[in-house]
Amino acid sequence: MNKPFLVFFLSFFVFTDIQFDGYVNNEEWKGAETYNLPYEIDPSYNTEAEHDTEVLIKHDANHLYIAFKAYGNKDYIRANIRSRDGINWLDDQVAVGIDTYGDGRYYIRFSANPLGSIGDNKVDNNDNFDGSYNVEFDAKAHITDYGYEAEFKIPFTSLNFPETQTQKWALMLSRKLYNKGTEARYLNYKKIDGAGCIICQSTDFYTIDNLVKKNKKRLIPSFTTNSVRQKNSEGNMNEEPINSELTLGGEYEFRGNNFEFTINPDFSQIEADQSQINVNSTTALRFEERRIFFNEGKDFLSSDLSTVYTRSINSPDYAMKLYNRGEKHSYYFLDAEDTKTPIIVPGYQRSYSGLLGKSHANIFSYNYNIEKGQNIGFLATNRDFEEGGNSSLFSIKGNFLFKDIYRTQFELVTTGIDEPFSDVINTENVSKEHTYNLDGESFNGYGGVFGIRRDSEDWSTRYYFATKSPNYRSDLGFTTENDWKKHSFEHTYKYRSSGFIRKGNMSFKKDLMLDYDGIILDQETQVSARVELENQININVNWDNSHKISYEGFVFNDVKDYNFGLSYSPSEKFWMRLGYDWGDSVARNIDVPEIGKRTNYSITSRYQFNDKFGLRYSYRKNQLQNTITKEDYFSGYITSIRGTYQLDKNSFFKVVHEYNNFNEDSYTQALFQWQPDSATIFYFGGTVDQEDIEGTWEVEGSQIYMKLQYLFNFD
């Protein structure tokens, strides 16, 4: 037997002997690459970690295997059985971040708690987490006499990587624990503030030779059905015919290109968006994108000006996208035919919205990737409306690092609008050059961003400028106001200690916002502070003085606002957060705006009865009062209670009740959900809507719904 064949044979034998069960057996992990986590990076600053954490990594032809041995602190371990991504806030966990390109553009983070519940997210070069990101992987774990052990199994098809003979992947290995009750984080390398992107600082890598890149080949069919009952204008309950639909989605990879499609997709959300209080708002509300199809590729669409808002693609007949993450060149293309098109027309300190018919949407993005998370790229969007007309947008953007401590960013955007003809928006208000109604006008606008930031170990300084011209509008983005320019300067001091105050910061900020006629819209000074104490008490305080505010021609001076926040988590069973805001605020939704006295407070708490069952309660109240008559401009609250029983990490049963005092209505939802992987999901539930009519609760509508979606993986 010749030597090369012997090496190949032995390597194959060693690297395929992992029993994926959450138990880290020394024999099966023999020959693995070993790492450790010697540094506590939070709340201390790169001090020696009190407890050892050992990490082992191996691979075979199809999977990457990672094992953690987390020693010590057993009496303080916090862990409950959670749904996917539910472990991020209150549990002990271990995690691996993998930058397959080694240039800091992003990394994929896989995590698990001591009971084997999992989470995954994508983290960009500014350390922003995308919690909606899901890919295929699994983890198993158990608590031991010395702490706990965890094993990860990650398919190579869940990672995008360059097609090179030798793969050298940068690693971020981390552990979150409640060390004697105080939250702490360990890392495998020193995290230096002011030393560039975080994963670029890693000194640990995992190298794989001759890895054969397997192409993704997946189909995702789904079946949905729902039954709706709704009260009509005459007060009678009508039951609509049962609505059932079939959907087909899929993904195919070829030569580094990833093609995804969905036909007749069901983009309804399993859970309703959290209700937002908008009683004093004059602009549309923004909600988080949580739909699976838009998971991959969101980083291509990132923008400080919100040039793309994928929830503006509302109910498409089909959608497809093609993207490639090359070593230097990356691109993304999306095409969709929408049947119900939401539109937001931005205006001067307010917005107008409506729902149009069909439209066709295209998005293209390109990035040139540079080391340490730097890049330069451009983005173009176009939307054609069935009612006629279209909207287009083109932007160029980049971010660069100088001497590690200086980061600068820029974004330049041009927009073009040929309006459709529609009566879905009807207002007599006009801008400087056109109406806000959809009456076939054509105009162009522009926007821009420039920022520079300096970070050191103790200080952070930032200057930021952004603008949207009076004619700026992005129909595939999210723009609620235009005709403004904003300058912002912020200076922050960071504090760390091993004493009673473990961590804190204090910030001073000055903002100046003007319109294009030079009128001051807002000129404010803000001072804020945050402290984290060793007993898991976190305190935030904020003072804000708007020296001058202009709203629709009315000018107000010295509008002061105060904020106080407190969070407390003494154990894994209990967590709470209090917020109290008071001071001055402009009453916007009256004929003549006035300054009123604002009082807002909120409480959110959670109690975990055992590792499977927990209750969550929320109460949010907003009140604005006339300073002279003491009458309310508005006053109301939203309260909700949620009980969740987690059968295992893949399935749960939940009951939610919410009451909205502003609208005097409520809803109750019961839901069962099973999700064994990133795309397979089954849920069955129902919702009852009620309204308070003259002190009597009446059912206004109800629905029962079910969905079965299954991932066929042919990788």
CATH-level-2 architecture of the domain at 15-209 = Sandwich
Q: Beta-strand percentage? A: over 45%
Helix content: under 10%
**Number of continuous helical runs:** 1
Query: What is the CATH first-level class name of the domain at 15-209?
Result: Mainly Beta
Task: Please tell me how large the radius of gyration is.
Answer: 27 Å
Q: What structural category do the secondary elements indicate?
A: mainly beta
- Low-confidence runs of at least 5 consecutive residues: 1-15
Based on Cα principal axes, name the global outline.
globular
What CATH calls the topology of the domain at 15-209 is Immunoglobulin-like
Note the main sheet.
24 strands, antiparallel, barrel
Distance between the termini: 33 Å
By DSSP, the count of extended strands is: 44
Describe the model.
It contains one helix and 44 strands. The protein has a domain at 15-209: Immunoglobulin-like (Sandwich), CATH 2.60.40.1190. By secondary structure, the protein is mainly β. 2% of the residues lie in helices and 58% in strands. The two termini are 33 Å apart.
Any chance you could write out the topology, listing elements then pairs?
Layout: H1 3-15, E1 33-36, E2 39-42, E3 47-48, E4 53-59, E5 63-71, E6 93-99, E7 106-112, E8 118-124, E9 129-130, E10 138-143, E11 147-155, E12 166-179, E13 182-187, E14 205-209, E15 217-231, E16 237-239, E17 243-254, E18 257-263, E19 316-325, E20 329-338, E21 341-346, E22 351-356, E23 359-369, E24 375-385, E25 390-402, E26 406-418, E27 421-422, E28 438-439, E29 442-455, E30 459-468, E31 484-496, E32 501-514, E33 520-533, E34 537-551, E35 554-571, E36 574-587, E37 594-608, E38 613-626, E39 632-648, E40 651-660, E41 665-674, E42 681-693, E43 696-709, E44 712-713
Antiparallel strand pairs: 1-4, 2-3, 2-13, 4-5, 5-11, 6-7, 6-12, 7-8, 8-9, 10-11, 12-13, 12-14, 15-16, 15-17, 15-43, 15-44, 17-18, 18-19, 19-20, 20-23, 21-22, 23-24, 24-25, 25-26, 26-29, 27-28, 29-30, 30-31, 31-32, 32-33, 33-34, 34-35, 35-36, 36-37, 37-38, 38-39, 39-40, 40-41, 41-42, 42-43
